[in-house]
Amino acid sequence: MSVLSDMKQGFIAMKANKPLMAVFSPMLLMTILYMPLGSLFPLLARSHFMGEAWHNSIVEFVFAGGLLLSSLVIGVWGGMKRRFFMASLAIGLMGLATLISGALPTSGFWIFVICCFFLGASGTFMNVPVMAYVQESIAPEMMGKVFSLLMTAMTLSMPIGLLVAGPVVEVIGVNTWFFWSGVALIVNAVLCRILTRRYDKVTMKPQVD
């Protein structure tokens, strides 16, 4: 089957690219932890911060604003030259904003709104440098297959986070879920830095030992 053959070739190309393989696991874990958060924003705003419908609207608007503004900043700035370091920082920022959101008292809604902005921005700051590295380091004829494999892996990891978050939130509470998700994301940022530090200066070509 051509689809399976393309995925196999994409995996072979990824496996030969040591920096990409190093960042792949932290990316998957980040997706599992990050994706449920947006779905839980309304629940946190309503149940923990005692918000109403307009509170949810503000949260969603500010989160989207973080995504948009960070995209504009990346477009003008171009990002850090040490792309994997930038990705690690972005995961750390994501974790810190998530942890703070879960640790806030019920009166801390507006601080939560600020955290939502950084949650939106950090997702862009994580994905853009990694995708840019893929474009630079993978041969053009293999790029579509590698991107397809990456997107498939990310898409399959999203429901895992949602499936876990739902029942756990019912037991421990949504704010506690945010807190410990933040802790896990910060640990993941450290893991990403450890795994990718040796590849800070790698740009156009895969690292070969």
From TrEMBL:
| TM regions (residue ranges) | 20-45, 57-77, 84-104, 110-134, 146-165, 177-196
Gene3D superfamilies, per database record: MFS general substrate transporter like domains
MF-aspect GO terms: transmembrane transporter activity
Q: Where in the cell is it found?
A: Cell membrane
Q: Its topology with respect to the membrane?
A: Multi-pass membrane protein
Q: Sorted alphabetically, which keywords does the UniProt record give?
A: Cell membrane, Membrane, Plasmid, Transmembrane, Transmembrane helix
Source organism's superkingdom?
Answer: Bacteria
One GO cellular component this record assigns the protein to is: plasma membrane
| Primary localisation category | membrane
Q: Which PANTHER family match?
A: INTEGRAL MEMBRANE EFFLUX PROTEIN-RELATED (PTHR23513), MAJOR FACILITATOR SUPERFAMILY ASSOCIATED DOMAIN-CONTAINING PROTEIN (PTHR23513:SF6)
This protein's name: Uncharacterized protein
Which lineage ranks, top first, belong to the organism behind this chain? Answer: Bacteria, Pseudomonadati, Pseudomonadota, Gammaproteobacteria, Enterobacterales
